[in-house]
Design brief:
The chain has six helices and 51 strands. By secondary structure, the chain is mainly beta. The two termini are about 35 Å apart.
């Protein structure tokens, strides 16, 4: 009996339609040849206004049918229309399975009023295939399978991409400074005060429609990228109306239901911002007490609404979403060391810093998105208003126990709170005419970072061996920093299609303008006392510091008092004006298409900083450039399945405000100061790409790419040693660098080996780089900082349609890469026994599991296990030692080590 049913279903799929009788019609639409579900197919009822559109799973539902016979019309571009007779009878519901056959006829002209969908695997593969550029992308459909929670996790699925600190993106082994980011067609501010970086973890994955990384230069994009130009597009016009709610939890095995140290914050910390309790207004908050609790787990909430209206033939779409996350992370017994020159004489390591940290983090994220899209009657004019807002905060308490470079025992603590606000908004228009396409974009972006009342103290045994005490007032410090950045931008682009007989080239031209402003301000306060004249208890230096500072009786003019250490040179302001224009030609020559362009950019960065610490003494310095950037992208399409790309282009990497500012910031994790370099120069890069692509079928891709980059004056992260033991991290131009590698990307259904319900995604890269410094430099020629010699990202996805079940297994591994740059303290870089070794992040295996089960029309349950193996995170230094007898060996030193814990998540989603 079961076999007969299967034969009947197979026969119906072969002819394209399976009839059923139901009052409510539900079904699934797929390709008759590949059995792949079709997203965006239109199901209408003849002689009625009732319509439905298939969702990302190819499913649809028609409600409100009157009893009786009806004719359903199923339409999808490029497929033959299917007619299906149904007899709606009260109380019956069955599934309609529709298999559409491709329409092989060559249509002379088709006019379609619709919204281009770019949120599916197939759509993004086709986009990459038809593009004139070398690019990779990720669709919302793939994101839903992986259950990645933010854009940082999503982007690591792209070949040649890795993450630092789980949020900063590196492309082809190049650090975040060599990558540029746009959200919805507009520039975004740096989310960090001390580096050029965009924290991708601020964008929840639920807000993403697609994510694209352009890897070859092209005239229509800004020239300030060489690793990748990353474009994040949030969702726009919906396919149907709906509303959904999500409730989720996550349990970290190192944190959940275990002791968690924290200090009292403000009443609004749970929303991601301080309500003023940590403000610099007198009197200060004198509560230094550390408390303990046992978090049950993490909380995740989300809601989304999508609606579309028909306004007299025009379509108006609304997408709105809000999400909230409150999570806890504990890293106990975390080794945090820095080794100096190895002591070859005594055969022992030489610590510049040795400590064990207990760190407790409470991270909060509140995000919202509102997108409006208006589509004209004929579909040739589209207007969009896109808004994305995120509020993030981290409340962290760190306890450190260690030994200083002077061999003093030390204990210190940091009370840290950081909040970030980001907003990105665009008003855009796209207009299509007979031979022209015109689009425009007006954008505004804002980002801030607040570190209100960052408190630190340290006690050591400098006064009496083995007895901890306050040595000086400089060991107790409070500071406030504020960063604000605004970006306004406008872009115009025009594309004209020529018909010159049988030759049909395209001409593209455009202009782009951007104004960026930034302000950074810092205040530092220290606790002091008069050693010869105070009324403090005689043993106050040996008291518990939180108890000492938390008692108002110990504070006053002749007791402990606060004073501000004026350091006006740490404050700066900046303005940046970028003006650009470009011309680009798309030239078809049979199977070869050439995209050739030229871009001009004028950039003027003004840095306004103080020349003296004790008073406002602003001085302005301009960094101006005028540059031309050529680009050439050629594609040879052998047939519809195979094609080869070759590209060349020039790009630039400009210093950021912070990197040229003389401002100094103390990094507690590094236990060192970070400072800018006013003499940094621009870096110019030549980029070459060669890629072979295979498209076996719709939604499938196999590509193999080679790339090479040459850098003139690359900007590297380095340090100097002050006072023999104190490190000052900064930025420096190396002489040159080379970066080259190979990438493989595979997205394939496994039906060819008898597993049609399985899909494989694999991407990997082998990368090599070398930075060359000027002769006589104390830096050695080495790989570029942050560059991994290899990257592996792979996933196996299982989809069981009858059970409404999706399962995914994901694997990630990155090779050993330099995180902290070493240097020679000898007479030259070749003096190995006088070299501080590099610090490396070591490889680790990461396996993620996810499962999604749908129950009926409304309920969806997701189970996630992230970092299943929970391997330790290691940072190591490798000292090459030469002994007096001439023998050599490499000594492995652990610079940092901690357990991240395993994350187990559960989510329940209800769709109305």
């Amino acid at each position: 009996m079961k076999m007969n049913k299967r034969i009947i279903v197979a026969a119906c799929l072969a002819v394209g339609c399976l009839q059923t009788w139901a009052q409510q019609i539900k079904g699934i639409v797929s390709d008759a040849k590949t059995q792949e579900t079709l997203i965006g197919a239109v199901i209408s009822v003849e002689d009625s206004n009732l319509k439905a559109i298939t969702d990302m799973e190819g499913c649809f539902a028609l409600d409100g049918l009157k009893s009786g016979k009806h004719t359903l019309l199923i339409n999808y571009i490029g497929y033959k229309t299917c007619q299906l007779q149904v007899d709606a009878q009260k109380g019956n519901t069955q599934v309609v399975k529709v298999a559409l056959s491709p329409d092989e006829q060559q249509l002379k002209e088709v006019t379609v009023t619709a919204v281009e969908r770019k949120n599916t695997d197939a759509a993004m593969v086709q986009m990459a295939k038809q593009s004139a550029l070398v690019m990779n992308n990720v669709s919302a459909q793939e994101i839903s399978r992986t259950q990645d929670t933010n854009a940082g996790e999503v982007i690591r699925r792209v070949p040649g991409v890795s993450l630092i600190d789980d949020k900063f993106v590196m492309v082809r082994g190049l650090s975040q400074r060599y990558n540029n980011v746009w959200v919805n067609g507009g520039a975004v501010p740096s989310s960090e005060a001390d580096s050029r970086a965009f924290s991708f973890d601020i964008i929840p994955s639920s807000q993403i429609d697609n994510l694209t990384i352009v890897k070859s230069p092209s005239a229509e994009y800004p020239a300030d990228y060489s690793g990748g130009f990353i474009i994040v597009n949030t969702k726009e016009i919906p396919t149907s109306n709906g509303f959904s709610l999500m409730l989720g939890g996550n349990w970290n095995t190192s944190t959940a239901m275990k002791d968690f140290s924290y200090y009292k914050g403000s009443a609004t910390d749970f929303l991601g911002f301080d309500n003023g309790k940590r403000s610099m207004d007198m009197p200060f908050n004198y509560d230094w007490a550390v408390k303990s609790k046992k978090p049950f787990g993490d909380l995740k909430l989300a809601a989304s609404m999508n609606h579309r209206w028909n306004l007299n033939g025009r379509t108006l779409g609304l997408l709105a979403a809000i999400n909230y996350t409150n999570e806890y992370r504990t890293y106990e017994n975390m080794e945090n060391n820095l080794f100096g020159i190895y002591d070859a004489v005594n055969n022992k390591p030489n610590y510049l810093r040795y400590s064990v940290d207990d760190q407790y983090n409470n991270n909060v994220r509140l995000g919202a998105m509102v997108n409006l899209t208006l589509l004209s009657r004929n579909g040739k004019h589209k207007y969009q208003l896109k808004n994305i807002f995120n509020q993030l905060a981290t409340s962290r308490y760190t306890w450190r126990d260690g030994v200083s470079a002077q061999s003093d025992m030390e204990r210190s603590a940091e009370y840290y709170y950081r909040s970030r606000t980001t907003y990105n908004g665009q008003l855009t228009g796209k207009h299509s005419f007979t031979d022209d396409t015109f689009d425009w974009n007006i954008g505004y972006a804002y980002a801030n970072r607040r570190l209100p009342d960052r408190k630190r103290y340290m006690v050591n045994d400098a006064l009496e061996t083995g007895v901890f005490a306050l040595s000086t007032g400089n060991d107790v410090k409070r500071e406030w920093t504020a960063l604000d950045e605004h970006i306004a931008s406008v872009a115009l682009n025009e594309k004209h299609h020529f018909t010159l007989g049988s030759w049909e080239p395209d001409l593209m031209a455009g202009t782009y303008g951007e104004y960026r402003t930034r302000a950074y301000e810092a205040h530092e306060f220290y606790y002091q006392w008069n050693p010869g004249n105070n009324t403090l208890p005689s043993d106050f230096q040996y008291m518990d510091v939180p108890t000492l500072l938390g008692n108002p009786d110990n504070l006053g003019d002749n007791k402990l008092y606060l004073f501000e250490q004026l350091q006006m040179r740490n404050n700066y302001r900046g303005h940046n004006i970028l003006g650009a224009g470009y011309l680009n030609m798309m030239l078809p020559f049979g199977k070869v298409t050439v995209n050739a362009g030229l871009r001009f950019e004028h950039n003027d960065m003004e840095l306004i900083s103080n020349t003296r610490d004790n008073e406002k003494s602003e001085q302005s310095r301009h960094y101006r450039t005028n540059d031309l950037f050529p680009s050439l992208n050629a594609t040879y399409r052998m047939n519809d399945i195979h094609q080869v790309r070759l590209s060349y282009g020039q790009s630039i990497n400009r210093p950021e405000f912070r990197e040229v500012a003389s401002s100094v910031y103390y990094d507690f994790d590094l236990a060192s100061d970070v400072q800018g370099n006013t003499e940094l120069n621009n870096c110019y890069i030549d980029n070459i790409d060669l890629r072979y692509e295979i498209y076996p079928s719709r939604g499938e891709l196999i590509s193999l790419a080679l790339f090479y980059k040459h850098f003139d004056s690359p900007i590297e992260w380095t340090y100097t040693v002050a006072g023999g033991t104190n490190l000052i991290y900064s930025y420096k131009n190396a002489r040159s660098a080379n970066n080259y590698g190979i990438e493989l990307d595979i997205r394939k259904n496994l039906a060819f080996i008898g597993l049609p319900d399985f899909n494989l995604s694999f991407n990997g890269a082998l990368i090599k780089s070398k930075v060359a410094f000027a002769p006589g430099s104390k830096e050695e020629n080495r790989p570029m900082q942050g560059q991994s010699p290899y990257l592996i990202n792979t996933g196996l996805f299982y989809k069981n349609k009858p059970l409404n079940l999706d399962v995914a297994v994901l694997y990630n591994r990155i090779g050993k890469r330099i995180i902290g740059v070493g240097r020679s303290e000898g007479s030259s870089a070749s003096d190995e026994n006088a070299r501080v070794p590099h610090s490396y992040e070591m490889p680790r295996n990461v396996i993620d599991l996810s499962a999604t089960k749908r129950f009926g029309e409304h309920w969806e349950i997701k189970l996630l296990v992230r970092d299943l193996l929970a391997e330790k995170v290691y940072y190591k230094q490798f000292a090459d030692v030469t002994y007096t007898d001439g023998s050599q060996r490499t000594v492995e030193e652990v610079a940092r080590c901690y357990k991240p814990g395993r994350n187990i998540g559960l989510q329940a989603i209800y769709k109305f």
